[in-house]
Amino acid sequence: MLTETTGRTPRDLAVEVEGLLRVDWASVWPGLPEPGTPEFRRLCERYGWEPETPFHERGSMDVHTRTGAKLAISMESSWGQVRSLDHYAWHVKAGDASENGAVLARAAETWPVYLKAVEEVLGAPTWTGPWNAEDFPEPLHPAYWPDKAFRLESRRPYEFAYWQPSREVPGRPYITLSQSVSFPTWTATAPGGSRLYLELWAPTEFLAAR
Predict the structure, then answer these.
(1) What one-character-per-residue DSSP string does 76-131 give?
(2) How far apart are CA 158 and CA 136, in angstroms?
(3) Ramachandran category for residue 182: left, alpha or beta (phi over 0 → left; psi -120 to 50 → alpha)
(4) What tens digit of pLDDT does each residue of 18-74 get?
(5) How far, rounded to the nearest angstrom, does the alpha carbon of residue 149 sit from its chain's CA centroid?
(6) How many helices and strands in the chain, by DSSP H and E?
(7) Which backbone phi and psi does 180 adopt, to 5 degrees?
(8) Is 136 helix (H, G, I), strand (E, B) or coil?
(9) Helices (H), the chain
(10) Phi, psi of 59 (to 5 degrees)
(11) H/E stretch holding 177
């Protein structure tokens, strides 16, 4: 039997995106305050983030939002400039290899529903399409998404959409919505799965300055 592990809905994802748009990213990308300081507590209270402890040793922090979503914040160093934030919005897995076809069918049904939920907040994406689209764009920064060689070899991202930020709002992130299909899904020997995840990336001008 297929199992969905996150318990999150398309509406949940839309609510998270709405909340993330309210973050003052221009002040977050340069770096988070040190944990335990009054500044750090105020930042978490401001955005409704509840940090998981203990903190990771190598530049990342997991937080839970007011809606119960888990966000992973990645940094450039042990505790420094913020690079990206990601959130797994949906994950289905097969119980055995005979269900791999059903995983692909469920993935095909799920992608447009979650994409529409994000579109209702952000508007139409700058680009959207599958892994083998002839006009699949190259990343605007190498960190944003895999290059062509990796994508064609791994079929990852399997489905993809990205939103290029408006320059009218300083620090507004590049936002990507991706769907992946694990390698075993394409086999008849092991159970596979599929994930859908949201990523927010520091704008190129912030990454280029590092």
Answers:
(1) SSTT--EEEEEEEEEEEE-SSGGGHHHHHHHHHHHHHHHHHHHHHHH-S-SEEEET
(2) 11
(3) beta
(4) 999 999 999 999 988 888 899 999 999 999 999 987 666 557 889 999 989 999 999
(5) 21
(6) 6, 9
(7) -120, 155
(8) coil
(9) 10-21, 25-28, 38-47, 100-122, 148-154, 204-208
(10) 60, 45
(11) strand 174-181
